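[Discussion] Sanity-checking designs against the backbone

I'm trying to build intuition for which residues belong where. Below is a structure token string of 302 positions. I'd appreciate it if someone posts a full sequence so I can compare it with mine line by line.
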């Protein structure tokens, strides 16, 4: 990855994108592209040296972005549950972004391991069948399909603009800015249970945002035309029951689990290609959870 690069980061107000934009700003000129509905988050980014440029990917108003940044890091995602809105933002919005920034050296497009069909044949390698992994979820009904569409837009854009792209299928990110485990803890404190599959337990490879940030450069270096596809996960496979037990042990907060047919299924990624291209994530899950708890819930930690 080139030093002192100009990098457009979308989704910089989100959990993962904020960490990525802030980390990259230590050595690069970072332009955060988002709607910036939260003034406090924008102020936090600007304090870290990030240049904030209001844009709306779905609306296509991208003239304020450079047409030839050094790199593009696309972390934005829409999860409204409205099919038209989410396809416009996740698929068409990505196409508009890469068309605008087609002079970049490379682009990293953050996808999700939620694109894999729930065949039960874990771990899922990058050539595993795709499908509506989240289709039964009342919370994320558009997620899998709109991200599959976005991956195809990324591949087409790479070919049209001769723009090297890496499509990285992120598993469960977490860290000081939050993540699914933190959301489960927040729900439990409000008396709301978390769903798990009937008769089983969902397993994942949670990855700390420190590892996400450290891998952005190598993932950009791995970009190709029409696209390098790679799973993106942490060093440990952990079940939801195991991590909720640990959160309860560390905080005293009981996290109720309920088995339902609409729960998001287990997705364990095969990380063979990730290890070959960019290496192994370094933060072990218990260490990472301890850090997350210390940052977000210092009054709860035992």
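Best answer:
Here's mine. Compare freely.
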């Amino acid at each position: 990855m080139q030093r002192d690069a100009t990098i457009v980061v979308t989704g910089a107000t989100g959990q993962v994108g904020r960490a990525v934009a802030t980390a990259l700003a230590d050595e690069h000129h970072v332009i955060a592209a988002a709607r910036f509905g939260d003034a406090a988050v924008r102020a936090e980014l600007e304090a870290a040296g990030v240049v904030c440029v209001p844009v709306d990917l779905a609306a296509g108003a991208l003239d304020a972005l450079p047409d030839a940044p050094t790199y593009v890091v696309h972390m934005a995602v829409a999860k409204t549950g409205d099919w038209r809105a989410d396809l416009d933002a996740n698929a068409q919005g990505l196409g508009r972004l890469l068309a605008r920034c087609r002079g970049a050296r490379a682009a990293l497009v953050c996808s999700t391991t939620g694109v894999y069909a729930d065949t039960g044949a874990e771990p899922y390698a990058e050539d595993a069948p795709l499908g509506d992994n989240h289709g039964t979820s009342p919370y994320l009904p558009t997620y899998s399909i709109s991200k599959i569409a976005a991956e195809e837009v990324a591949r087409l854009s790479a070919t049209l603009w001769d723009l090297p792209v890496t499509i990285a299928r992120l598993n469960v990110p977490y860290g000081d800015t939050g993540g699914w485990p933190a959301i489960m803890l927040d729900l439990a404190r409000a008396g709301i249970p978390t769903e798990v599959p009937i008769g089983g337990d969902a397993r994942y490879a949670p990855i700390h945002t420190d590892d996400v940030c450290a891998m952005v450069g190598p993932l950009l270096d791995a970009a190709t035309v029409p696209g390098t596809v790679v799973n993106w996960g942490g060093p440990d496979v952990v079940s939801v029951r195991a991590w909720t037990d640990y959160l309860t042990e560390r905080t005293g907060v009981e996290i109720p689990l309920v088995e339902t047919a609409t729960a998001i299924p287990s997705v364990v990624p095969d990380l063979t290609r990730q290890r070959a291209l960019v290496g192994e994530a370094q933060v072990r899950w218990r260490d990472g959870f301890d850090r997350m708890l210390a940052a977000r819930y210092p009054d709860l930690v035992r």
